[in-house]
Amino acid sequence: MSLSTDILRSYRAPRLVVREQLAAGRREDRVLVYLMLACVLIFFAQWPGVTRAAQIDPSVPLQARIGGALMGVLFVLPLLSYALALFIWLALRLVVPVSAYGVRLALFWAVLAITPLMLVQAALSSALGASGGGMQLFGFVVLAGFLFILFGGLRAALEAGSAAA
Known about the structure:
- The chain has one domain (3-164).
- The chain is 85% helix and 0% strand.
- It is built from six helices and no strands.
- Helix 1 packs across helix 2 (14-23), helix 3 (28-56) packs across helix 4 (62-93) and helix 4 runs antiparallel to helix 5 (100-128).
């Protein structure tokens, strides 16, 4: 199936989507593309907030703020994502057999699958303003969606790990 269809399916059945991707075979390049595509989309989702911050405090120019966001999202976030995947794998490995690849796939897929909601959040933030309970509530929706997709993907990785053992 197409990537966008799989992302939409992840909001209903994340375990099934990750299980299908695990069944397709080990493809580290695909997992890295998921992470980098998510990072690019997250970078674009940062623009409304960065623009507003530059308008509020012009002491730091917009180009510097965009450069900082670029550095953070496209260079630091992938490293932190790999470190988080390693930590999750080590923690799960103490309890059940699971492959490191399965954990990376589940985590990176969850990050990619949640980016449409992050883009909607950025659009709402630019239209309605960053303050207010509505934006915080939508932030919790984004977090809940991320955790739902992540835990579903980790369940699929655990199932694949226990079947292989």
